[in-house]
Amino acid sequence: MIRHAPSIGLGLGLSLRSDVLGATGPLDLVSGASAAYSTRALSRGWVAGDVVEVRRSSDSTTQDFTAGQIANGDMAAFCGVGDGFISTWYDQSGNANDATQSTTTSQPKIVDAGVLITEGGLPAFYVDGVDDRLELTSAITNVGDFYVGYVSVIEETSGLQAILGANTNTNYLRVSDRRWQLYSGTGAGNTGTIAWSAPFNSRYLMSFNRSGSSVTAQLDGLAAGNGTNAADITTFTKLFLRSNSTSQLWKGNVQELIIYKSDQSANREAIETNINDYFGIY
């Protein structure tokens, strides 16, 4: 596995279309991410870095792949006519906080019967809403101000769906039919309602930014709700699941997740313009 620290310093004013491998990524624009995961390279410094480890269904062999090896068909060829599952989603922030899953039945699927899963024509993986989730190598702790940007399809379910969670029910960020919630375990967690502008089963860029006790939500670059959260989050330890229980699992195709443990109000537009330039969401 090749690891490269993100290269920084191209300036917030730059945002070129990043559907060309090696173009500017969000981590080039804004440094200091706590964790960053994607099916693409998120910085020029990660072009040769692995973005996923995949387990093939035929014999459970695993192999690492760069974004380029996903795009050029190497990963699908490795899986053959079978399925491929994410065993590790590599952290590109430079903090080596990889998201992993050793339980094979809980690994999200990225190749289905020899065919790469895509969303909007770009690589994605499917989280089934039943038992799929990933565990962070290291807990993200003492989360005060933060920014979370997330590219995914939301498939409609009867329950809430968690983006980030912890080992207990006391810390999580989740969304649902017409509301989203940041919960810190103090009873001061309900942060407002998102007015969804499009139906389920479509891809969105969602973001959440906390500055002091104020939390704002954005949906496809537009304000989608705001609220308050008086207490800091203690810990995030997992993706796509609220807690160790099997409740509130995410369901849908996923492509990118970036987490900053800092207020990114001033940089949000630059980050999200870059994300949208690549994924072409809105």
Characterise this structure.
Strands 2, 3, 4, 5, 6, 7, 11, 13, 14, 15 and 19 form an eleven-stranded antiparallel sheet that branches. Strands 1, 10, 12, 16, 17, 18 and 20 form a seven-stranded antiparallel sheet that branches. The protein is mainly beta and 282 residues long. Helix content is 10%, strand content 38%. Strand 8 and strand 9 (122-123) form a beta hairpin.
Structural key phrases:
4 helices, 20 strands, 11-stranded antiparallel beta sheet, 10% helix, disordered N terminus, 282 residues, single chain, 7-stranded antiparallel beta sheet, globular, mainly beta
Overall number of strands: 20
Share of helix, binned: under 10%
Radius of gyration (CA) equals 17 Å
In whole angstroms, the N-to-C terminal distance is: 34 Å
Strand content: 35-45%
Biggest sheet record: 11 strands, antiparallel
Task: Give the low-pLDDT segments.
Answer: 1-19
Average the pLDDT over all residues and give the rounded result.
86
Structural class estimated from helices and strands? mainly beta
Order of helices and strands: HEEEHHEEEEEEEEEEEEEEEEEH
